[in-house]
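Need tokens for this chain, all 260 residues.
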Amino acid sequence: MWDKIQQDVEIDKTDDGSFPHVDYDTREFSFLFAASGTVSYSVRGRETFYGIAKTMLYPSDLEKYLANCNLSIQGLQADRSVICILDADLRIVFCNWSWDRFAFQNGGFALSHLFVVGTSVLDVTPESLQPFYTSAYTNARKTGQHWEHDFECSSPENFRLFHMRVLPIGGPYLCVENSLRVERPHEAATEPSLPLSRYVDENGLTVMCCHCRRTRQARNIGNAKWHWIPDFLKSPPKNVSHGLCELCLHFFYPDARPLA
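Here are the structure tokens for all 260 residues:
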């Protein structure tokens, strides 16, 4: 059922049999890749990054459906958009190198293809948005029509607006493409600086908006507001839960019913 693609790039061991220690985009990551046992890597740059994930599995009939749409695995791999392909059960059966690159650059190693392929896309979708996206995916497959949506996913340094396209490609498959539409530095912060304890609720959770990445002031402390705290993006606090602030709800999902 599963085929695989191979990248030509390899990571050579050093003289002592270990793998070289380098950085990726000035950040260090510990990579675990179970090919012939478990190996730890630190990587830098595109070639070494590709060398890590040089083997990727995907369903054997996927290329046939892609070819019918003038697409290919190699083309998806070279695309700078963050792309995954879903099967009839909304399981991720393929994601491209840009998916992995985005995950690593944003501290989400657990969201790389090594972990998400074979799991439901809803497992990497905030719970508050699962009904919305389930409906969108289902309707796209049922009607055979593509579906588009904009959403924010900002970094500590930049405001980022992405454009999502859900494309039925035949058979059980949907191709989900996320392309960067707008990126610019954040405006100077004018929000109050509060003790970090003010953002931990009565259940010990820190709630962050899954789009604008603001953090909600604990509801048990008066009128809960959402504040921009870049340090929480760089080094997330323990026990983070993702929700959706009122502004993002009304702006990005005006037709959606209220989300918890």
